[in-house]
Amino acid sequence: MAEVVWVGCNRSPKRAGIYERTEKFGLQTIQFDRNALESGWVTEQLIALQVDWIALTGFLMKIPSDMVEAFHQRIINIHPSLLPKYGGKGMYGHLVHEAVKAHGDVVSGMTVHWVNEAYDAGDILFQATCDVTPEDDADAIAGKVLALEHRYYADVLESLVRENDITLA
Known about the structure:
The protein has one domain (about 5-169): Formyl transferase, N-terminal domain (Rossmann fold), CATH 3.40.50.170. It is built from 6 helices and 8 strands, in the order E-E-H-E-H-H-E-H-E-H-E-E-H-E. Helix 5 (about 95-100) packs across helix 6. It has helices spanning about 20-25, 35-40, 40-50, 65-70, 95-100, 140-160; strands at about 5, 5-10, 30, 55, 75-80, 105-115, 125-130, 165-169. The protein is globular. The chain is an alpha/beta fold. The strands form 3 sheets. Strands 4-5-6-7 form a 4-stranded mixed β-sheet. Strands 1-8 form a two-stranded parallel sheet. Helix 4 links the parallel strand 4 and strand 5 (about 75-80).
């Protein structure tokens, strides 16, 4: 059985819906900045809470090597493309969907991958696809990909969690 023990966000409550969502479940979301991440403060918090797994969603900062090392093969991320296409620094959110459209791709999708020291370069755990029609604009592509993310991310995480009795951040 998994237990969520820490939720962190680098955006303010005005810019991220996670605060309102976690409050409904009686959880507090801790706001932190790049310095807290890079200085090791976030890693220290997670280690102190004996977190086993970290699930990233909508997180755009590079994970520092000390955190990757401390949680090797225990940090997963979701990305709105079929990696390795449209991954890496600066490729996030709507920028990804605009690139899919600009390149005339007929398929897009989402990827769940291990996090390592490089942006979107960890081994792929799961991918799901959706068709892209010539009529689809970046917003339509985004909607299709988001539906896949909502459908599959929790399932992938659950399959990892079932392997062990763990706590999540």
